[in-house]
Specification:
two-stranded antiparallel sheet; 55% helix; 231 residues
Length: 231
């Protein structure tokens, strides 16, 4: 667990945990680890190739998949494929920290981050979610779906309110071009409705991505506002 890495330095543990989460999400091709259980597993055909030649057909750091062929969480966790992926991710994380301007930001002098344990813990959680969904325990999956819906509804309300307020402000200031721009934003939000709002951001990023709107020869950037998730 991240809290066990450096009990006297929670900030370092937090940074290490954040990097591990980011690298694993990128490896599996998802924007947040909460969606990792939906990623298609590695095929049995590729696993056979891996068994015959691990070096040539082993997992890649980018665009990888998990082996979920085991009958239990433990069997899946002990998969040679998954263990190799953990090892490669740990090596990659170590290389990133070593190449940083200040490597000690993710490690104390004479003490190394246990990257393999960090990645093992996160992958075990994903495999547990996959196993629970497989046997019908979908409560967490349903909760994630409800949370995503609530996030989209919140985004819709906020963006609608912001566009309305900005349009009114431009109107009061005699800014016809700005009023037209924000009118277009408001129209787009109203057309998209709640289901048109994205729910792909990770918790660590701004909930509003920068929106670029181009009409004719002019364009305006609507900067992100608010911050609770990370469109």
């Amino acid at each position: 667990m991240a809290s066990e890495l450096h009990p006297n330095n929670a900030a370092i543990a937090k940074r290490a945990n954040s990097l591990a989460r980011e690298l694993l999400a990128r490896s599996l091709g998802v924007n947040a680890l909460k969606w990792a259980h939906t990623v298609e597993p590695i095929s049995s055909a590729h696993l056979q190739l891996f068994c015959a030649d691990p070096d040539a057909y082993g997992p890649s750091i980018l665009d990888s998949r998990l082996d979920t062929s085991g009958q239990t969480v433990r069997e899946m966790g002990e998969s040679a494929w998954n263990q190799t992926l953990i090892f490669k991710l740990a090596q990659h994380a170590e290389a990133i920290v070593a190449a940083a301007d200040n490597p000690q930001e993710c490690g104390l002098p004479g003490q190394k981050i246990e990257w393999d344990n960090l990645f093992k813990d996160k992958i075990q959680r994903i495999l547990r979610d996959i196993y629970n969904a497989r046997i019908g325990h979908t409560s967490r999956t349903s909760s994630v779906i409800k949370q995503a819906r609530a996030t989209r509804a919140w985004k819709f309300k906020c963006r609608q309110s912001i566009a309305t307020a900005e349009q009114q402000c431009c109107r009061e200031n005699g800014d016809a071009e700005g009023e037209e721009c924000w009118g277009f934003v408001l129209y787009a939000v109203d057309v998209l409705q709640i289901d048109g709002m994205s729910d792909e951001e990770d918790e660590n990023f701004d909930i509003f991505s920068t929106v670029s709107i181009q009409q004719g020869a002019w364009w305006t950037k609507v900067s992100g506002v608010g911050s609770s998730r990370g469109g």
